[in-house]
Amino acid sequence: MCAVPVPGFDRPLELILQVHRRIEHRCALMGRLVEHLAERGCDADARATAGHIVRFFDEDVARHHEDEELEFYDAVVAAAPAPDRARVAALVARLRSEHAELQSLWADALRPQLVAVQQGRVAWFGGSEIERCHSLYIEHTTRENDELLPLAEAFLTSAQLEQLGRGMAARRGRPYP
Ligand SMILES: [Fe+2]
Ligand SMILES: [Fe+2]
What we know:
This protein is an all-alpha fold. Helix content is 81%, strand content 0%.
């Protein structure tokens, strides 16, 4: 669905940025799915699109949050020079709490509705929790792109980037790079 070349695990910050772009793409796709359901009902295209979105969030986004929570966030805080460390730690604490809210919105609101569409059991999805999940994903990835990735580029050494990339590969059972 996104024919963009995938960077290797030796370019972990580019990989993180690429997942953010894919999340934004899937959020836009969800908006189009709402319109499609209203105009054409729960046809085969709608069911396939819903299934595609569910797999993406269950697999790719779950791994991505693990990359950030298990390794990336702490690596950036630890690498920050002392005068900046408290500010970076506060940013990371906010990002972690956004992950928790996103996970509960996904599991409790968005995923059940998308699965119902995938299975052809409903012809509509939406509501305030879906809108909140959609807008928070965009806010969250924008905050990571604009505030955290520039700090990672500034502070992480090539050895630390390699460690991050090796961890990402290992969690996916893939070779490095
Ligand atoms: Fe994140
Ligand atoms: Fe992220």
